[in-house]
């Protein structure tokens, strides 16, 4: 471990939060299927809807843990989580009932979605289960977005996603939306114009923010994606885009953070009831750290957990920010 004098106060606070037993962070995948086909997607989408049995086990687990919790963070992920809306509603309403019965328990809920099904009515319905924040990805202007992010029928998806975003803006719902703008070789020359359009449409609406993210090789189809930018070029493009957006819309930068996979109180719940740490390394055996049993208890592999938590001991930034990437880079 690094000497305490070399560790910032902010990092210490993050470490203490990552170890706090009164906090639980659950990334729930109600399905790994999707309604879109993205050329760079790393998931193989093998697992379909979460079964009733797994839903029951998960509810028992959450109920048992809620007694000792002060804060529960729930993030809906996929696949596309809205493909499994009924599952979200069942688990979400159950969690909502716990948070009202147990007054000390504070629940925060968000969702990563492609936005294709997120119209105003859907957002209002999800708000009733506590979902108030979203991350939605756009792949640049429609002429490019529609070439890499199509429906299962081969149709473009931009217009519907964009119209949903405009409708949500005009509906004035108390939600927050992080627009994740993907960067790659083929859309790089058109992104400044597109970001200006986005910043203009959502300017001065504090509910909306931007995150610029390069498409990366995360395995699966992304390993064969030809448009991945070199790091130096993507870094420069990000800075250029930040300047375009500056003064119009808030830009989020991910700096000096601890990855959820490093945190001792964060877990990924897959549709088959297996427990993981990372939403990227889904098929790596290292990522299956436990299983939910019928009583709602988790049987963990302590050896695997220690592997994911090693950054909390070493305080090495690379192991804290992405323990899986730090491992693969050493191979």
Q: Describe the strand arrangement of the main beta sheet, using strand numbers.
A: 9-8-7-5-4-3-1-10-11-12-13
Query: The biggest beta sheet, please?
Result: 11 strands, mixed
Report the oligomer: single chain
- Structural class, please? alpha/beta
- Averaged pLDDT, please? 90
Helix run count: 11
Per DSSP E runs of 2 or more residues, the count of β-strands stands at 13
Silhouette = globular
Q: Give the H and E element order.
A: HEEHEHEHEHEHEHEHEEEEEHHH
CATH domain class name: Alpha Beta
Tell me what portion of residues adopts beta-strand conformation.
Answer: 15-25%
Give the helix proportion (percent range): 25-40%
Spans with pLDDT under 50 lasting ≥5 residues?
A: none
Gyration radius from CA atoms, angstroms: 20 Å
Named CATH architecture: Alpha-Beta Barrel
CATH superfamily: Aldolase class I
Number of domains: 1
Would you tell me which CATH topology applies? TIM Barrel
């Amino acid at each position: 471990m690094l000497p305490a004098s070399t560790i910032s106060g902010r990092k210490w606070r993050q470490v203490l939060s990552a170890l706090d037993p009164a906090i639980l962070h659950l990334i729930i995948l109600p399905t790994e299927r999707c309604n879109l086909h993205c050329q760079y997607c790393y998931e193989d989408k093998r697992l379909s809807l979460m079964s009733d049995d797994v839903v029951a086990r998960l509810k028992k687990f959450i109920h048992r843990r809620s007694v000792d919790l002060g804060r529960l963070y729930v993030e809906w992920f996929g696949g596309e989580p809205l493909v499994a809306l009924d599952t979200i509603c069942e688990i979400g309403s159950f969690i909502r009932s716990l948070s009202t019965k147990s007054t000390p328990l504070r629940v925060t809920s968000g969702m990563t979605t492609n936005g294709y099904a997120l119209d105003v009515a859907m957002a209002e319905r999800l708000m009733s289960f506590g979902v108030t924040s979203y991350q939605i990805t756009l792949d640049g202007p429609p002429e490019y977005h529609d070439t890499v992010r199509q429906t299962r029928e081969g149709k473009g998806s931009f217009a519907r996603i964009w119209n949903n975003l405009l409708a949500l803006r005009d509906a004035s719902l108390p939600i927050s939306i992080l627009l994740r703008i993907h960067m790659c070789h083929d859309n790089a020359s058109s992104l400044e114009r597109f970001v200006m359009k986005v910043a203009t449409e959502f300017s001065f609406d504090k509910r909306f923010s931007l995150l610029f993210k390069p498409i990366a090789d995360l395995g699966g189809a992304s390993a064969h994606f030809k448009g991945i930018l070199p790091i130096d070029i993507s870094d420069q493009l990000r800075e250029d885009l930040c300047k375009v957006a500056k003064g119009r819309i808030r830009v989020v930068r991910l700096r000096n953070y601890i990855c959820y996979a490093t945190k001792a109180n964060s877990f990924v719940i897959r549709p088959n009831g297996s427990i993981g740490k990372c939403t990227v390394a889904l098929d790596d055996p290292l990522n299956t750290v436990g299983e939910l049993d019928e009583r709602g208890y988790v049987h963990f592999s302590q050896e695997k957990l220690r592997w994911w938590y090693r950054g909390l001991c070493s305080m090495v930034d690379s192991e804290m920010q992405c323990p899986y990437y730090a491992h693969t880079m050493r191979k």
